[in-house]
Amino acid sequence: MADDPLFPPNMAYASTTKNLMLYVGIPDETNPVEKYKADGTKMIYIVTPEEKASGFQIKEDEGAIVWESDTYLKRWFFENLHTWMGGKIDSSMSAQERMKRVAAILLEVIDLSNFDSNSAKILGKDNLPLRNVMQNFRWIEDGIKLSRFKNVFKGANVLVIAAGPSLNSQWETLRQLRIADPKLVIMVCGRNYRNTMKYGVHPQFVLEAEEFDWVDNQWMFAPMPPENTILATTPNVCPGILKHWPSEKVVLIDHNLAQMFGWKVGEDSIDGGNSILHIIVNFAVFIGAKNVYLAGVDFGYPKGALEKSHCDGSFPNWNPDVNKQESMFQDFLWMPSTDGGQVQSSPPYRNFKTFLELQIHKYTTLDKDLKFWNLSPHGCKIAGTEYLDIVKWKDQVCSPPSPSPSLPESVPQESLLLGLQPALHFTDTSQLVTVTKPSTPERKPTPTPTPNSASSSSSKTSRGRKSRKASR
Q1: What mean pLDDT, rounded, does the chain reach?
Q2: To the nearest 10°, the Cα dihedral for 137, 143, 147, 148?
Q3: Nearest CA to 178 among 194, 197, 193?
Q4: What is the pLDDT of residues 95-104, one digit of tens each?
Q5: Count of alpha carbons within 13 Å of 425, Cβ hemisphere only?
């Protein structure tokens, strides 16, 4: 995140001291700022654009941030202060209400940070992420190299299909979009791959990050993928998924692994996240998306407490205990929804949404032409996205003659050999074959340069959670 003009060059002290004061507004004569500083307290002012424009100046030993938006402030906290758990918040008399908002934003970021830490402890039990990475290393070498996908679909429309319950009423519309716009790049999370094949919404990419052994059960009976559908996984994914996928595959190397091997961070590696949705969004931007459409990203229960947490058919053959946990509603909370009302959500969903909002803010700051669209009619409102009625979008796409199946001009023709063309040749799902094991031998892997050898990898690769620091 680029420094604001008010920032001193080095803000490292912010995450290493508890003697920190977040001061909201411009201090007046009643505030003992100098007394705070005399006690060794570090000062960071949070001011509005108007206050900055009024001529407010900071001293050499102070810092400041301009509160451009709640998301901007939230992202700054996450990237600079999320490990800080002490200090004070104060304000001028005229900024008391703003101080309360700052405190609420900071608590939300701290909650996200704690959520990440707790998840990492659970997922890292028994060194499972490390063991999976070691077993999957062959696919890092033998799969398609991640850098081949950098901006390969520059300027494309990318449809991200998650697994929220709003999808139950949208499959037919999505199928029509698939047929009407062959250039639409579709990415689906692994748990919903079966549904996309069932309803004729054939994806170019299937993404997975689940690391537990029982997860590959859903892949053992799923329909065979179209020939050019590519599996993209995190390095720590369940090895059985990569092993049994009969088509091309790519491992989404995180920044820590890239640094270990001496590869180019950002070209040979990708940002991480704390859910598969975040991984998909990172990959969509990586391949060059201009518009990212979010389907099934509800972050809640649009129909209330009786609704399942995910769409129908997204839990095939999963462990019953896992299904039970997935369906259990945790502490309810109400969140603003896309239709202007409120929708039931939960603290974990709020954390997932917060992280997605930080991603969107980062990417749209770097690329002003990049747009994110929310297709959930009664899901959580996501900062940085615009709601789009999926039926109106379909009608708009279907109104002109359907374009002939072809690649974006930016895709090199040699990419055809790597399976990067859209998956278009399946239209009748009744002709798809259901298998219990891949009935065809694995393809000969695409030759790639052999990377520097390594005998181990840090458990920090778990879903790329701790790769964020390297990406900032």
Answers
A1: 75
A2: 180
A3: 197
A4: 888 988 888 8
A5: 7
Q: Alpha-carbon distance 273 to 353, whole Å?
A: 11
Q: Report which of 142, 188, 146, 197 is spatially closest to residue 164, judged by C-alpha positions.
A: 188
Tell me yes or no: is domain 12-122 CATH 3.40.50.20.
yes
C-alpha torsion angle, residues 139, 145, 146, 150 (rounded to 10): -160
Which residues, including other chains, have CB under 8 Å from residue 364's CB and lie 6 or more apart? 370, 371, 372, 384
Q: Whole-angstrom Cα distance, residue 294 to residue 281?
A: 9
Single pTM value for the model: 0.69
Count other C-beta atoms under 10 Å from residue 156's C-beta: 24
**Contacts of residue 144, Cβ cutoff 8 Å, sequence gap at least 6:** 230, 248, 249, 250, 418, 419, 446, 448
Q: Counting beta carbons within 10 angstroms of the beta carbon of residue 413, is it exposed (0 to 12), middle (13 to 18) or buried (19 or more)? A: exposed
Q: What are the domain boundaries of the chain?
A: 12-122, 131-440
pLDDT of 165 > 80? The answer is yes
Percent of the chain residues past pLDDT 90, beyond the cut? 31
* DSSP output for 2-30: PPPTTS-S--GGGGT-S-EEEEES---TT
Question: Nearest-CA neighbor of 178 among 442, 401, 424?
Answer: 424
Q: Report how far residue 437's alpha carbon sits from residue 425's, in angstroms, rounded to the nearest whole number.
A: 23
Closest CA to 62 of 84, 83, 45: 45
Any bridge partners for residue 88, and if so which? 21
Residue 439 burial (CB count, 10 A) = 9
Average pLDDT over residues 242-269: 88
Convert the pLDDT of each residue in 72-111 to its tens digit: 888 888 777 655 555 678 887 788 889 888 888 887 877 7
Segment (H or E) for 415: none
Contact between residue 323 and residue 208 where contact means Cβ atoms under 8 Å apart: no
- 124 is written with which tokens? 């890292």
pLDDT tens column, 303-359: 876 667 787 877 655 555 545 555 454 567 888 999 999 998 888 888 899 999 999
SS3 content of the chain, % helix, strand, coil (to 5): 40, 15, 45
Cα–Cα distance measured from residue 159 to residue 422, given in angstroms and rounded to the nearest whole number: 13
